[in-house]
Design goal:
The structure holds two protein chains of two kinds. Chain A is built from 14 helices and two strands. By secondary structure, chain A is mostly helical. Chain A has a single domain, classed as ABC transporter involved in vitamin B12 uptake, BtuC, CATH 1.10.3470. Chain B is an alpha/beta fold. Chain B is 48% helix and 16% strand. The longest helix of chain B has 24 residues. Classes of the chains: A mainly alpha, B alpha/beta. At the A-B interface, helix 3 and helix 7 of A face helix 10 of B.
Chain lengths: 341, 316
């Protein structure tokens, strides 16, 4: 394998970014049967040349489809990056972004907001999102405190406390849902499946900012993660502040996952499949794995979501079905041919 | 006097009279003695009843509503947790949820007949009740006509055939008059929203779809392959419904769409209407109330609608 030079890093990442922009533009053309790709293309062209004709076409392109594609890019990217980071510090290939209880915490936040019946929106952000975000962060903090032993974070203790807290909160949620007759609670079922919609741009902006901060924290630790893939003691003897790195990755990952889960619910599969695919295809350097996972996860989710909303049009199917049906076999193929994880 | 006459009459006349009396008394008391009827339920199962049901368990809110509207409420001994109409139903013994009623509870109520529905009850429940030798009649309505025949069927099984006939006749008259009114104007594009976040609507196969069509509307989601599809906003924008109908608690949120999706005709013209979701989703007699309300909403014009909104406002 070639060594990673700055030139190679920059050129591959810019090619990937360019590709993802092109893919996103193509996805912009697909949607309801009532607005065919050709008409969308004409609308897009007239937008860029400045003579906008149809208000409806413009609304659909820039208020419905574009925000949804951007949301998919942010969410998919955030989940894949967080998954890659968690797999590294927990030293477990099965770790996904939700393994530390973040999704259950967010779900509990959603339940609380449905129960309280508050639907105020702060600066364009619905209260449900705020509650979900708060629930996610609180749960991660609890798991973090439970998983810390003598100011150290042993991977297995952390992992097991996460799994247990997750199980306890989900059981509590199911209990609430099954004893409550409130019709509002059907929402929680949809939320738990994970779904994308078209948020307004202020919501997108906030999600983007949180994801950006999370990603920046993760990326800053990429080099240390490479050393951390050896065992903790070896990394420590090499002069690494192991616990600080783990803490930073947890914080960065929490921001990434909370930003996505609070808007879209726990969309499964991306966070576990994309990082492994990237490792199989592009090697084990986290300076590469993290950004490529981010781009790959975003594009993959955007494509999957477009399939989910066009396959049975006018009805939509849950995007998690598409990610698992399309991504699963591809990943297994890679696993069998490369035989490395 | 007559008795004296019979007693003093010749032997063969006396014997004949006794026979007649016996036969007559047998016929008069027949419900308790020679009652044996076989019914075929909505999914083609045969149900043999040896006595007229006196203890009835209902496994769905719409069944409870039908039973009460046929004056059989006093025979109902068990209902689901969701059966909240009419008010008397709330006080009946509860057998649990539609999808997971408590079989033990049903058995303990010793019902002569259990009414179940394909709309909500799992087939396993019927199998299990059958194994327990509990007579179960399964309803399987698909549209307004199906609901009317369900009412007739429940009337026949519970011995309230004439009440059922009366109810069905009056409901049919109301449906017919709506159909006639619906023909007077060209159909409007209508969407029913089950939920706003995520956006879920109703397509073919749902009762709401049938109600919209019968009330003189066109369901904009009539090409949906799914009964209750989750839809993308662009679908609604492109199909541009003229009337939006939704459960009352969603109306405020839908009004809030105006900011982003103000181009939709229904929002532009203020044709967004509340409805009690129970009366349009439960296949019982109240669905005709829903039909009339939807028809009224469809017949509104943006102008008459303004007045209505002011009225609603003052009512609140």
């Amino acid at each position: 394998m070639q060594t990673l030079t700055l030139k190679r890093w920059l050129s591959s990442l810019s090619i990937l970014s360019l590709l993802s922009i092109i893919v996103s533009l193509v996805l912009l053309l697909y949607g309801s049967d009532a607005l065919r790709p050709y008409d969308a293309l004409v609308g897009l062209k007239s937008f860029f040349t400045g003579n906008i004709e149809s208000g409806t076409v413009r609304t659909i392109l820039f208020q419905v489809r574009l925000p949804r594609i951007i949301l998919a890019l942010i969410t998919g990217g955030a989940l894949a990056t967080a998954g890659a980071g968690f797999q590294a510090i927990l030293k477990n290939p099965l770790a996904d972004p939700y393994v530390l209880g973040i999704s259950s915490g967010a779900a509990l936040g959603v339940i609380v907001s449905l129960y309280l019946g508050v639907f105020v929106s702060l600066a364009g952000i619905s209260s449900t999102i705020v509650f979900a975000f708060t629930g996610a962060m609180l749960t991660l903090y609890i798991v973090y405190r439970l998983g810390t032993v003598d100011k150290k974070i042993p991977p297995h203790t952390m992992l097991l406390s996460g799994v247990m807290v997750n199980a306890i909160i989900f059981a509590a949620i199911l209990l609430i849902v099954s004893i409550s007759n409130s019709l509002n609670l059907y929402k929680i079922f949809f939320w738990l499946l994970g779904y994308l919609s078209s948020p307004d741009y202020s919501t997108l902006l906030v999600a983007f900012i949180f994801a950006l901060i999370g990603a920046a924290i993760m990326f800053s630790q990429a080099k240390s993660l490479n050393i951390l893939t050896m065992d903790d003691e070896t990394a420590a003897t090499l002069g690494l502040d192991v616990e600080r790195i783990k803490k930073l990755i947890l914080i960065g990952g929490a921001l990434l996952v909370a930003a996505s889960v609070s808007i879209c619910g726990p969309i499964s599969f991306i966070g576990i499949m994309i990082p492994h695919t990237v490792r199989l295809l592009a090697g084990y350097d986290y300076r590469f794995i993290l950004p490529v996972s981010m781009i790959g996860g975003g594009v993959f989710l955007a494509v999957a979501d477009t399939v989910a909303r066009t396959l049975l049009s006018p009805a939509e199917i849950p995007v998690g079905i598409i990610t698992a049906l399309a991504g699963g076999p591809f990943f297994l193929y890679l696993l069998r041919t490369r035989r490395l994880v | 006097m007559t008795v004296m006459k019979i007693v003093s009459a010749p032997v063969h006349i006396r014997r004949l009279s006794i026979l007649i009396v016996l036969v007559l008394s047998l016929i008069l008391c027949s419900p308790d003695y020679i009652y044996a009827e076989t019914f075929t339920d909505g999914i083609g199962r045969k149900i043999e009843l040896t006595k007229r049901p006196e203890r009835i368990v209902s496994l769905a809110p719409n069944i409870t509503e039908i039973l009460f509207s046929l004056q059989s409420g006093n025979k109902v001994v068990g209902v689901t947790d969701f059966c909240d109409y009419p008010e008397e139903a709330i006080n009946k013994a509860k057998v649990g949820w539609l999808i997971s009623p408590n079989i033990e509870k049903i058995i303990s109520l010793q019902p002569d007949i259990v009414f179940a529905t394909t709309e909500g009850n799992k087939p396993e429940i019927v199998d299990e009740l059958e194994r327990m030798n509990i007579k179960t009649y399964v309803l399987n309505p698909h549209n307004i006509n199906g609901i009317l025949s369900d009412i007739t069927a429940i009337g026949a099984v519970t011995g309230q055939s004439s009440a059922a006939r009366e109810l069905v006749n009056s409901l049919t008259r109301r449906v017919d008059s709506i159909k006639k009114r619906a023909l007077e104007r060209s159909p409007k594009r209508v969407i029913y929203l089950v939920s706003t976040d995520p956006v879920i609507s109703a397509g073919p196969g749902s009762f709401i779809h049938d109600l919209i069509l019968t009330a003189g509307g066109v369901n904009v989601l009539s090409d949906s392959p799914i009964r209750y599809p989750r839809v993308d906003m662009e679908e609604i924008i492109l199909k541009d419904p003229e009337v939006i109908i939704a459960p009352s608690d969603l109306i405020e949120q839908i009004q809030g769409w105006k900011k982003r999706w103000g181009g939709i005709s229904a929002l532009k013209n203020g044709m967004v209407y509340p409805i009690n979701p129970d009366i349009v989703s439960r296949p019982g007699p109240r669905i005709i109330d829903g039909l009339e309300l939807i028809n009224e909403y469809i017949r509104n014009t943006p102008e008459s609608n303004k007045k209505l909104n002011i009225m609603n406002h003052t009512l609140q």
